[in-house]
Amino acid sequence: MTQSFESVQQIADALLFEGYVLYPYRASDGKNRVRWQFGVLMPPAYGAVDPSERTWSQTDCLLDGDEAVLTVRIRFLQAQRRTVLNAERVEVESLQTEDASYVPWDEAVEQHVDVTVDLRELPGEKAFSVAGGTELETVGDAGFLQRTRLPLEGVLALSKEDLPGPHGVNRLRLRLENRSTGKDSERVGALRQALIAHHLLVAADGCRFISLLEPPEWATGYVAGCENLGIFPVLAGDLLLSSPIILYDQPQIAPESQGDLFDATEIDEILSLRTMTLTEEEKREVRGTDPRAAAMLDRVDSMPQEILDRLHGTVRYLRKVTEPEPAPADAPWWDPGNDTSVSPETDTVMVGGVAVGNGVRVRLRPGVRRADAQDMFLADRVGTVVAVLSDVDGVTHLAVALDGEEGEVQRSHGRYLYFSPDEIEPLVSAG
């Protein structure tokens, strides 16, 4: 089953390191002083101090049978405290080398625990532990980096429920608890015995998972009975990926991405360019902040121009305007070039007995409930309809260019104002 888990390793690693260290990737920056926000399971003692922090999570999912061997991989980060020692092994505030500036910092170690169980043997619990320890790294002649990890303990409880009906569906519940014995009442200290950025990979040999996001109609009632807390499952190939960050089924990493920048909500190109602008002194601090940040910096600094160009923009679907080819059977349904039933430039919609379409002049009457604040400045303005469009829900919209210089700019850029038919008044009489 290891090979199956490897098929989703890239997306799982993106979850593991989301927000690990943020631009400008320096320990001294304010954004990097409050660490680890996603998928954190704190020790029970800290959960009693701060109930807003979770100490357990629950995954509910659906299986289409009751005879399967389950393999669950629990993945998380274990924090380790890095302190800086001089050549005499005395703790100091910083350590300077030719290319890096080291300061105290909490790094993290990837951990995973595999649990295998027969579905027919549930309910059951599987306890696990992760050892602590101390390591010492020599930094040239300047001194040492000392890394200390505290032990972790946890329990995965598994249960199943046979659901009524003719479909043979079972609801599988996985409850993951942090049972570490830490007593630290400060968040920074408690994180050192937390399961950080935790998520689950689940394989079922003998059954298949049913999507909770796009279930077949007969399974919608079963989905409504699922309760996911602190984590949510999606399909990833034949596997289930239960993530603290909401994903779609079959999530993927963009093929243009050259590696983790630790902030999947940002654009790779922007972060890469901003990282390139760091001063040499700032880069020294980045290299000393964390080994992963140092590797990211080296990758960005050595990125060839042709690779950077790929990040600038990617067109995933092209349609020939001249000499169009027949649309394939699986062509995107949203491409107007494949749908001869629509023609935005010639279609019309009836408004007050007038066929309104391209070239018809109208007065704007923005609706109070639908309009944004800026639309109040467009009330009673006059413009010309450019196209009649329909959105994915089949609702009709009119693209309008204002009269005067504003409209000329809109036409030159192809950027128009959009209104519902009941938000315009035709300036021609019904024929």
**Overall 3D geometry?**
globular
Number of DSSP strands?
A: 22
**Terminus-to-terminus distance:** 71 Å
The helicity comes to 10-25%
Radius of gyration: 28 Å
Structural class: alpha+beta
Percent of residues in beta strands?
25-35%
Stretches with pLDDT under 50, minimum 5 residues: 318-323
What can you tell me about this protein's structure?
By secondary structure, the chain is of the alpha+beta class. It has ten helices and 22 strands. It has helices at residues 2-6, 9-16, 44-49, 187-190, 220-224, 268-276, 280-289, 291-301, 305-312, 405-413, and strands at 56-63, 69-86, 91-92, 95-96, 101-102, 105-118, 124-130, 133-139, 143-149, 152-162, 170-178, 196-205, 209-210, 232-236, 239-243, 348-351, 354-357, 361-364, 382-390, 396-402, 417-419, 424-426. The strands form five sheets. Strands 2, 3, 6, 8, 9, 12, 14 and 15 form an eight-stranded antiparallel beta sheet that branches. Strands 7-10-11-1-13 form a five-stranded antiparallel beta sheet, with no helix packed on it. It is globular. The model is unreliable at 318-323 (pLDDT under 50).
Question: Which structural traits does this protein have?
Answer:
8-stranded antiparallel beta sheet, alpha+beta, 5-stranded antiparallel beta sheet, globular, 22 strands, 431 residues
